[in-house]
Amino acid sequence: MLDEVPSENPAAPETAPRASTETRVGQFRQILLWPVELVPPNPEPIHHDYAAILSKLGPDNPWKEIDDEFTGDPKDFQERHYNEFVTFLPPVQRFLYGSGESKAAGSVTSHSPITAFRRTDIATARVVLTPGAKPVELKIAHVDLYFFYEIDVAILALELYSDDIGLADVQDVMFRLGRTHPAYWEKSGVAGHCPVKVEFLSDKGDVLTASDYEDRDKFLAQVCTKRAARVAAHWQYLLAPLIPHHSEQVGVLRYKQLEYYRMPQMALIAVNGGNELTRADYVRLAFASGPGDCSELPFSQRHLEDFEERYCYDRYFGQHNEIEWPQSRYMSCGHALVVTGSAENPFFVDPHHGCLNSFRHEHFLVFLIAHFHKASLLMFSDHLTGAMSRLDVQNKSAILAFRAASRRALQTFLRFTHRYWFHSVSNQTQAHDIFALCRRHLDIDRLYEDIRQEIQEMSEFLENEAMRKQSDTVTRLTVVTTLGLVGTTVTGFLGMNLLDWATQNTYWRIEAFLTVLIPTVLLTLITIAKSRALSDMMESLSDGTARWMPKFLRTTKY
Question: What is the pTM of this model?
Answer without folding.
Answer: 0.81
